[in-house]
Structure formats: C-alpha cells, structure tokens
User: Fold this.
Amino acid sequence: MKDGLRFVDCDMHIMEPPDLFERYLDPAFKHRVILPIGADGRPVRGTIVVDGLPTTMDAELQQYRKKSKAAVDTSQSTQPLSGSRITGRLDFAIQRKYDPEAQLMGMEMEGVDIAVLYPTTGLSLLARDNMDPRLSLALCQAYNNWIHEFCRHRPERLKFVAMLPPHDVNLACRELLRCVRELGAVGSFMRPNLVNGHYWHSNYWTPLYALHEELNVTWGFHEGTGAWYSHMNVLYGENRFFRHVASHWIEMQQALIAMVIGGVFEFHPRLRVGFLEAQNSWVPGVLSRIEWDYPQYRDSHAPYLALTPKEYFRRNCWAAVEGSEPEIEATAGLIGADRMCISTDYPHFDSNFPYVSTNLLKNVPKEMAGPILEGGAHLYGFTEDHFKKAAAVA
Assistant:
C-alpha cells in the first residue's frame, strides 16, 4: 500500500533476459531469430533480428543523431526529472539482473500491492507488416511461457498480460485462450499501430474482442517508439524526440477514435480497454471532438451508436498517468478519477521510479489519488480476494 491506499501498477515493465528466445523459442523457428552475442559467446541485450530485419529502427536511425554540444538546462521543467538508470535508482535491479525478486523490491519501494507486467523488447518484437503468422505466434508463445514462469515467483502480486500475434486473429484467439486458462494471464496487449492494415474498428478483430469479453479479461493498448511500420518514422525519421512525443499520444488517440466511432464498445459492451503509458490529458479533448461532430455525422455514418463518447469511455475504458503530470486533477474532473490508473513504467529510462506514487500524492488531493492508485484493479478485474492474497504474502 501507499500511505494507506491500495496501489495496482497497471503497467510495470520487465527486462527480458537476453537468452529468452534461446531457451524458450520453438526449435523449428530458432534459425530465423538472431540474438546479439557478446564476447563470451552468450546472448546480450540489444537489437534482435527476425527474418533478417531488426525488431526496432532506432539502432539504424540513431547513427545519424546529432551530438549534443552542451548540457541541457532542465531547471525550468514542469515535471520531476526522470532517468532512473542515470541516477543509480536501479542499481539493485541491475545487480540482480532484473529477476523476480528485484521486481518485488521495486514494488515495495513504490508501495505497489499488485503489478501487471508488460514487456520491454517485446513491445517492438512483432512491429512489422507481413510477418509469417506462425513465427509471430512462436515468438508470443516463447515470451508468454517465460513471463508465466517469472510471475510464479509470487503469483499473488505479479500478474501478466499475454503477448498476442497480430498477424492472424485466429491464432491470437488461440493464444489468448491458452494464456488465460493455462497460464493465468489477466489480459492481453497490442500496440495501437495498425498491422497489415487491419483497423481497430474492422470486423477482422471481432472474434478477439468477443473472446476478451467471454474470458472477462482486459485489452491493453501499449505503444512503443521505433517500430518498423510506425507512421511516425515516415513523419519524423531519425529524430527519436519527435517520434517519442508523437507516437504515444497520437497512436492512442487514433485507436480510441476508431473504437468509439466504429462501434467496438457498442457491440462489445463488456470489453475493458486500457490506454497505457501515454498520459491521459488527451482523452477529454478527443471525446469532446467526437461529440462535436455527433450532430453532423451520427445518423448518417454511425447510426448504431446508442451512447455519447464520454459514456462509452466511462463504461469501457481506463487511461493511465505516471504521477507527475500537472493536468491530472483537471483531467480527473472531466473523465473521472475512477477511469484513471497509474503506471510506474519501471524500469524504463523515462520513468520517475521510485517516486511515481509519491509524485501523485503531492500532485492531487488524497481523495482523488486513491481511485487513481486503485484504478488498475478495476481495469483488470481484481477483487477484494486478490488484495487479501497479495497482502498475505507481502
């Protein structure tokens, strides 16, 4: 708990071991996945190459990045500085090679009761069009098997969402079913970018939306910068600053627009969707924009819609904050603190770990911070029993 408040980290990250695919990938596909190798002949952290293409464009694009000529003055920043690795806040985790015990240590430092774990390398692993669906599934299965074993260290407190192959919706359904029923996944995640041109309001995704409802698990949208097929690469090229600012917000906005106007929430009323690691002050503006156009287009272009955009959001959606955003209180007043959740983003370089929850409590009144800290419980369907089990082993 954090200052007597329950805290579910809706989006905590792991650092995959360098040899994950060496150990867990189906041998039939190992020749198609090349891992970076160190001087000792063992896998090291770095860009993985799948079918001859790196999993991220950053390694190629960043070689052209201009060198900094002077230190940047950050004294006028409106938010606390991040950069956990630089300040040594992650030394304990690095020494333990980001093992499950380090994950629990990080949770204790932030006051997290239950954490839902997302990948790091895995965010870009499937980020391209036209990947062989069988390979896409094999990569997902390897990651999901590993993260399941990782969470078994303390399953009452460590939860995970399944990585699903976006290249074949039927294979995605099969993997979701396996992960939920056999491995204990509490949901799945997808990047909000489009793969193979399948829009989020397309009927293509209907079986997967319906299965999430049937299994009563959560769909999490999680963006990551540097994907091969991201439109942000076309717009901004090698400048990661441009792409990082734009991708997390804009891709989420487009996903929400598609799901609201396209009727996803009308036809799947029990679908729970989280918009993660993109802050959330953009949400009220997008909802207002859709509502502005309702009188002009609703009857002619979306006659199936029965609720207002805000009503759909408040029934089906949650959006995450990272604690220090100055707009949190104002946004909560517009969409409700109960439709917000909080991500520590541990252990990424732009996280404010271990001060995320502290920053939130400094930023908003405690009565507002409480629903936000506990918001992840409602997003993932955690009950009183989940909290009792977590407390018993803490």
Notes: The radius of gyration is 20 Å.
